[in-house]
Amino acid sequence: MMIVSLPLFLISFIIGKSDKIKEQWFAQHFIQFVFRGALKAASTNLTVKGFENIPRDTAVLYVSNHRSFFDIISIYSLVPGLTGIVAKESIKKVPILHAWMKILKCLFLNRADTREALKTILTGIDNIKSGVSMLIFPEGTRGPSNTEMLPFKEGSFKLATKPQVPIVPIALTNTGTIFEDNGGLRIQKCHAIIEFGKPIYTKGLDREAQKTLCADTQAVIQEMLLNNVNEI
Description:
- The protein is 40% helix and 16% strand.
- The protein is of the alpha/beta class.
- A seven-stranded mixed beta sheet has the order 1-7-6-2-5-3-4, with helices on both faces.
- Strand 3, helix 4 (95-103) and strand 4 (107-109) form a beta-alpha-beta unit.
- Helix 1 packs antiparallel against helix 2 (20-41) and helix 2 crosses helix 3.
- The longest helix is centred in the first third of the chain and has 22 residues, at 20-41.
- 36% of the residues are buried.
């Protein structure tokens, strides 16, 4: 699909010459179409819960647990507004996908370089201030199971506290079964759940509340995971 997208990338480039926002929408609609097709091709039965919790009148910071390569595909196929992703720097090596991600205001985080990581976060804050939501996976890598998470990294929460936008917590259950839990050798039909929690508002938070924001958000996601695992 990425190779087939090359003519559409040219159309996107032409649109962007006169209107960058229209170019973002064009790119996002195309990528969402591809991702929905990927989920269908993988025979993934995706149950969506809490979609109505996503604020429509402001950019938000989506914060999710991480189980699978299919996490981005699952979430991004659903987001209602312009959204960028904070992804691993290694994705920059995928030529065509990288080009689409640049249009979508996606960012590539180098955790090994503190200065570069800070620059990335500051760019993400600017994106959110301009009305583009961002999606992060603050574990930094894939978690161990459907109910366990790695500790969240606090630095990325500045994407919400600096522009004072809501955090939308996301719980992904059983997405690892699609691919990773099979040793990465085959794609397997499965039932997965994605739940969008109620927004956590950051406007007006005092310093003490900001200090616990990361842990509080992870606790909300943890509770959703524990509730949803019994439905698989």
